[in-house]
Design brief:
Rossmann fold
């Protein structure tokens, strides 16, 4: 049986991954998880939900996008018997928000998420200036499903998260996909992961923050090369 790719979503929690799944094709067994769009749940509760979803899985890898990195790290640190590898895509083990923006966002509530995010901000921070219209439409479709209160809680969870020490307990190979045009998560976040997990493999991709959606081809190639090096198939 081939290894199954378990995809964990970004902050919207919807787990659409359309371009990535289309690029993977039928040859790769893939399952995308999602989080409740209208129930504000923090990292602890979401980790428990993912843990329960994986209870019957065997021979799988976790591919965690951005927000879901801390969830994947915590689960990998528990050393579940079926887990073969961990992939972090533009993600973090501790909050990537620092300095003045961190102080400002700590004071923000649900009102920040009650308006549709402007297209120029979506492209600037998430998808890149040359994003396909389909990607933009998918993102808006996902965002519009999620309540403002849910987004607000997830933001506060990002601001206070720190699971870096859990990395020392991870026993499977780990790959980090670093989006080189990322305006949200930077090189220092990848370095924080490597500090606690020295054997981290790093792949740099010329892509914006949502690297799995905007550049699925290079992302898939990097993951498959990584799995091949570790004889995971």
């Amino acid at each position: 049986m081939s290894v199954r790719w378990i995809l964990l979503p970004g902050m919207d929690g919807i787990g659409r991954f359309r371009s990535l799944r289309e690029s993977l094709g039928d040859a790769t067994d893939c399952r995308a998880l999602s989080y409740p769009p209208d129930v504000p749940l923090g990292y602890d509760a979401l980790t428990e939900r993912v843990r329960e979803s994986l209870r019957d899985e065997t021979d799988y890898i976790l591919v965690a996008e951005s927000f879901s990195g801390p969830i994947a790290i915590r689960l990998a640190a528990e050393r579940p018997p079926g887990l073969r590898a961990l992939v972090l895509a533009a993600s973090f083990c501790a909050s990537p928000v620092r300095g003045v923006p961190r102080a400002i966002l700590r004071r923000m509530g649900a009102s920040l998420f009650r308006i549709r995010p402007p297209l120029f901000l979506v492209k600037h921070f998430l998808l890149g200036s040359g994003a396909w219209q389909r990607l933009v439409d998918d993102l808006y479709a996902s965002v519009e499903q999620v309540s403002a209160e849910t987004f607000a809680l997830r933001l506060q969870e990002i601001l206070r998260v720190d699971v870096c020490t859990s990395l020392a307990k991870v026993a499977v190979p780990m790959l980090y996909l670093q989006a080189m045009r990322d305006r949200l998560v930077g090189g220092q976040d990848a370095q924080a992961v490597r500090t606690m997990y020295p054997h981290l493999e790093l792949e740099r991709i010329e892509a914006p923050h949502m690297v799995l959606q905007s550049h699925p081809g290079p992302a898939i190639a990097a993951i498959r090369d990584f799995l091949g090096r570790h004889k995971i198939s």
